[in-house]
From TrEMBL:
Protein family (similarity comment): Belongs to the ParA family.
Taxonomic lineage of the native organism: Bacteria, Bacillati, Actinomycetota, Actinomycetes, Kitasatosporales
Protein name: AAA domain-containing protein
The protein's role, per its UniProt record: May play a role in septum formation.
Domain AAA: 11-186
Length: 276
């Protein structure tokens, strides 16, 4: 790969939207793989009990596998659960197992219940450029742990009716966490997913999202692509499943834009690279 400027400090990016099916997991794994292919060292933290991000990265996550549950509830070091992702150099995953479904309740009675992931990340000593946290479709203690651990929130938005509905609640939670627990937290990035520019609805929603969020919205949007939706069933990201597909190229470009913004370089869409 061509290589991109690396951030001075690890960027911890929380991928959140309490609506299900908007492309959180797809965005997490494909952006992470793209950033790794661009030369970064990247960790995906799977914080959804469904373990879809782990599956999509080809990471074993049956009930016996050491997982993010052990980190959050049993205080196991993060390094003990991180696995390298096959086929993508520089990409790692802390998997989720089904145990995590109980963590939402188990965390309630633990000390520092909101900051257990933050502590685990702070104690992780391997050098990383990015940590991407895939959140469940809810605003419970798991998502709160992610918001306390991160500096940035990335909101994937699917361009359909009611796309913005419910986001107010996420934004209020971001404000609450910023005010009480994590002053650095901010919404840095909005990404339009499953975008079909040929439909009037999609372009209307995109315009509404750009009016609402302004510069936070990446210039690059992710098209609806069958290759993107097929890749997880092969335990692969679209970047290795079909590297030349429009889906793969769009995630590579979104990753480039995200990386350039992180070092304050203005992104010029007319200079889009169609590849690594
Ligand atoms: P979430 O994590 O927000 O619930 P997912 O990432 O699991 O959402 O995506 C929901 C569904 O949409 C999945 O079946 C996924 O494969 C599919 N999907 C996501 N992004 C795209 C895309 N760009 N093109 C086609 N299908 C997509
Ligand atoms: Mg998901």
């Amino acid at each position: 790969g061509e290589g991109l400027p690396r951030p001075e400090q690890t960027r911890v990016i929380v991928v959140a939207n309490q609506k299900g099916g908007v492309g959180k997991t797809t965005t997490t794994v494909n952006l992470a793989a793209s950033l790794a292919l661009h030369g970064g060292r990247v960790l995906v933290v799977d914080l959804d009990p469904q373990g879809n991000a782990s599956t999509a990265l080809g990471i074993d996550h049956h009930a016996e596998v050491p997982s993010i549950y052990d980190v959050l509830v049993e205080s196991k070091p993060l390094a003990d659960v991180v696995q390298p992702v096959p086929d993508v150099e520089g990409l790692f995953c802390a998997p989720a197992t089904i145990d995590l479904a109980g963590a939402e309740i188990e965390l309630v009675s633990l000390v520092a219940r909101e900051s257990r992931l933050q502590r685990a990340i702070q104690s992780y000593e391997q050098p990383l450029d990015y940590i991407l946290i895939d959140c469940p479709p809810s605003l419970g203690l798991l998502t709160v742990n992610a918001l306390v651990a991160g500096q940035e929130v990335l909101i994937p938005i699917q361009c359909e009716y009611y796309a913005l509905e419910g986001l107010g609640q996420l934004l209020r939670n971001v404000d609450l966490v910023r005010g009480h627990l994590n002053p650095a937290l901010h919404v840095s990035t909005v990404l339009l997913t499953m975008y079909d520019g040929r439909t009037r609805l999609a372009s209307q929603v995109a315009e509404e999202v750009r009016n609402h969020f302004g510069d936070e919205v990446l210039r690059t949007s992710i098209p609806r692509s069958v290759r993107i939706s097929e890749a997880p069933s092969y335990g692969q990201t679209v970047l290795t499943y079909d590297p030349g597909s429009s889906g793969a190229l769009s995630y590579l470009e979104a990753a480039r834009e995200l990386a350039l913004r992180g070092v304050g370089v203005r992104y010029d869409p007319t200079q889009a690279h169609l590849g690594v």
